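Could someone model zinc ion with this protein?
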Amino acid sequence: MSVFADLVGQERVVAQLQAAACAADRLVTGEAEGAGGMTHAWLFTGPPGSGRSVAARAFAAALQCERGAGCGHCDDCAQALTGAHPDVAVIVPEGLHLKIKEAREIITRSSRAPTRGRWQVTLIEDADRMEERTSNTLLKAIEEPPPRGVLLLCAPSVEDLLPTIRSRCRLVPLRTPPPEAVASVLVTRDGIDPAMASFAAQAAQGHIGRAKRLATDEETRRERREVLALPRSLQGVGSALAAAEALVATAKEEAAALSVERDAGETESLSRALGAGATGKGMTGGKPKGGAGALKELETRQKDRAKRTQRDALDRALVDLAAFYRDVLQVQLGTGTALVHGDLREQATTIGRATTPESTLRRIDAVLACREALDANVAPLLAVEAMALSLRTG
Ligand SMILES: [Zn+2]
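Reply:
Sure, complex below.
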């Protein structure tokens, strides 16, 4: 199976990347002709869950594939996909921003000759989480790329990067996969019951990972129900504030559950590595760190990540809420379009009858304003309280 098999509903992107991988292969094998499809900097854009990092990983594998096109069977393909390939580095900013130190390490790394003789690939997930100073550091590497260095950037949209960077990248725009395509993958790849797959794909609004969690995890479904129960509980100021607090708490819980498991595993393997005399080398192959120092550094990184996970969980909840109010609007306008939260049609209808389309539009705006506030680092509880007050009906 090709390395691109996991990309859902992205036929055009797959064709583009396959052509580029073939061109790259011709460069490596010395046939320069027809190498125009390959370049050093790529920008994968698409909404969260559309598979932009899946696409970037698949492309990284295809570039390393000894058969030249991402066969999915050779060692290079397998190692690149699992993150074990020596010439593929995946950088995930752990905190809210990619640090300038990380950017410098990326540049040093990508200038090294590839150990297996093909490409030195560096993939940066969430490249939008970069401050201007960091972007400028990275820009230097993009302006003068080493002959075999390839930089793959992932971001929600092109506007999330500085114009100087995006103008030097070839664009790979992923679209939100249609619910039918997502449902079909859940059925064929994960063996999920078709009715459940269809519900999860619709409710996840094109987010493939979210769809799978909704289809397979009762806890995720419970949290979703809790979030979507919010509109019914917003009658007065008191209840709105209480609902806001509950929503932030749910996001915290969800993030904590994710973090605890991941942190424990990391701490354990680091402790084990330190116990065995290993040094936990950094990306630049720097000096061995002392055990306590390395553990402390890991702890700081985990704290940064927890903050980010919590913000992401809250944002997820807001996306669900906004979709609920869009459903209410559909019902009010009688458009007959399929609802995102079809299982909650009754609630949407009740609220739709008691309010006006104009007020629904205002509520959708309030949810979007809250997402923007969180993005601008406003304290979560404050932002959600302001939103809940604008959502209330009494
Ligand atoms: Zn291969």
